Amino acid sequence: MQKSVSVQVDSDFALLLPSGAYEIKKMEPRSKLRKVILFCLLLSLFGMVAFGYFCPDQVCALSPRERVSESLALTYAEALGRPLPDVIAQPGLSYDEVLHDDFRFDLDAHDVMVFLHIQKTGGTSFGKHLVMDLDLKRPCNCQRARKRCHCFRPHSNEIWLFSRYSTGWKCGLHADFTELTACVGGELDRHEGSAVHRRYFYITLLREPVARYLSEYRHVKRGATWKGSRHWCQGRTATASEVPPCYTGESWRGVTLEEFAACPWNLANNRQTRMLADLALVGCYNGTLRHRTLDTERVLLASAKRNLAAMAYFGLTEFQKISQYVFEETFNLRFAVPFTQHNATVSGATMAALSPAQIAHIKRLNSLDLELYEFAKNLMFKRFEALKKRDSDFDFRWKHLGEVSPRSGVTEFDWDSNLEDATTEKYRGK
């Protein structure tokens, strides 16, 4: 006859068990406890992953300073020809993949070139180069009456170029980085009637800041306003109190340089930095014009540097031949004409007539742009040297840049004489 033993339990009553089963029954609570603990750990892990995935950016995002610091950990020189990084747009190729000999901007797939056009940097002329002078299997079909070109892929009517002369100002007049990255995908989906997974290659031009500022001043003096700009950020347009006008009436025609420089919220000040930065980092226009601080300015500059370096391509108006070579080698595309450098401009003549005090004041107003431009110039020359080293035919290419076909004529970069202004045309959808 089997012996029985009594086991005291929490309920203070005795459970009679066969002695041989005592050890097994004794271990069951511990086994169940381990299972419960394991389940709780897995549930917690799943919760953290789900929270990080679905949590809104406003709640879970790093602070502006932390986000910029994290982004600056990237190596700026390692962005050549790369689609915009995952944190901003669709995931794309790595720098190592771009360096492969078989890398191409794929016109037959879903690659899209997005031109961020900053005022008075030569973007009008460069935009015309893109739609008129690239040597393509299926060139852009330009309609002069509408100032638009259909830039379709070789075997479909999908768009490969998002720019003023190909799509119009679909994201707003002279849309900046903040506006374009929030808008381009949706606009292309609506235009083409379906959602497509694309790779976006952002490109832009920069210009020496003092010359650019003086060129914008002269343009505004002639009557340009860019009133159609939306200044869109985080789902809304900037209010009149956030972007107050510097003048009353229809335009600022006839403004003097002193009046132009005296307006504290003039959008011409540090325009290149502001248009390349992620404005959400500083509270959009509330933190860029009316409530500027040293901290917000440094965040803007760091963001602009980071975004510029992450772009597939940028050019400098003062270095046309290098800019053309870097573009062609980056995208494996060729222009059928050489870019022409204009060293003597009206802005240069204007600058020569200014006093040292006036020039110093303009530099103070554009201190962020001056630092950004130096950064851009150093980075561009690094990219140029890297491309030059891996090009076994560099001497021939350099000598015959823009000579891929018997086409004649040059689309010249005339920075100051082009009076055409987008304020006179419909800037959305046209």
TrEMBL record:
- Pfam families xrefs: Sulfotransfer_2 (PF03567)
**What GO cellular component entries does it have?**
membrane
What keywords is this UniProt entry annotated with? Glycoprotein, Membrane, Signal-anchor, Transferase, Transmembrane, Transmembrane helix
Which Enzyme Commission number(s) are listed? 2.8.2.-
Q: Does the keyword Endoplasmic reticulum apply?
A: no
Q: Name one GO molecular function term.
A: heparan sulfate 6-sulfotransferase activity
What name has this protein been given in UniProt? Answer: Heparan-sulfate 6-O-sulfotransferase
Where are the bilayer-spanning segments? 36-54
Q: How does it sit in the membrane?
A: Single-pass type II membrane protein
Q: Which catalysed reactions does the entry list for this protein?
A: alpha-D-glucosaminyl-[heparan sulfate](n) + 3'-phosphoadenylyl sulfate = 6-sulfo-alpha-D-glucosaminyl-[heparan sulfate](n) + adenosine 3',5'-bisphosphate + H(+)
Species per Swiss-Prot/TrEMBL record? Parnassius apollo (Apollo butterfly)
Q: Its function?
A: 6-O-sulfation enzyme which catalyzes the transfer of sulfate from 3'-phosphoadenosine 5'-phosphosulfate (PAPS) to position 6 of the N-sulfoglucosamine residue (GlcNS) of heparan sulfate.
**Where does the record place it?**
Membrane
The entry's family comment says: Belongs to the sulfotransferase 6 family.
